[in-house]
Amino acid sequence: MKKKIGVFIMGIAVMGMLAGCTEAEADTVSENLSKSADSFKVVRKVVFFNGITDKDLLIIEGRCSLGNQDSDRRMTVTCKTGKDQYKKHYLGLSDNVSFFAEQLEAKKEDPFHYKVIIRPEAVVPDFDLQTSGNKSE
Questions:
Q1: Any keyword Signal (predicted)?
Q2: Are 64 and 44 in contact, with CB atoms under 8 Å apart?
Q3: Which one of 24, 32, 67, 89 has the largest count of C-beta atoms within 10 Å of its C-beta?
């Protein structure tokens, strides 16, 4: 009897793990595209516009990443402008100012593999070392 209960519990656990591993192809591709964009590999056009006057306030185009941790009233757009050169734009959103972002080029992404991007500066942060031998007086 104990073996049957153990097998039943093990079967439920395996089914739960398998159910948790399945993800829609579109979700995987979307996540991979977002990671590529955050690595400046996707060309985007971001338009900020006034919804009342129907006029564009700002258009940003290039290899840009949208602010992932922005608040509801703030939007940042960081763009790679050259080798090791970046520009960051801060924009305030309001009731009448909004934005849309468009991906300008198609990008091949594998729906069957996740991307994991590790940046060395995230693992080993940039720091200044001060010892007794290099004090400035």
A1: yes
A2: yes
A3: 32
Candidate from 20-29, 38-47, 57-66 with smallest mean pLDDT: 20-29
Task: Please choose, from the candidates 2, 92, 4, 80, the residue with its C-alpha nearest in 3D space to the C-alpha of residue 36.
Answer: 80
Nearest to 60 by CA among 81, 83, 39, 74: 81
Decide if 93 contacts 75 (C-beta within 8 A): yes
* Token couple for 68: 């992932």
Q: What percent of the chain has pLDDT over 70?
A: 64
74/55 Cα distance (integer angstroms): 19
What is the residue-averaged pLDDT of the chain?
76
How is 115-129 classified by DSSP, letter by letter?
Answer: -----HHHHS-----
The C-alpha atoms of residue 34 and residue 54 are separated, in whole angstroms, by 28
Beta bridge partners of residue 63, listed in sequence order? 43, 80
| 80-98 per-residue burial string, b: 16 or more CB within 10 A, e: under 16 | beeeeeeeeeebeeeeebe
Q: Cβ-count burial of 34 within 10 angstroms (0-12 exposed, 13-18 middle, 19+ buried)?
A: middle
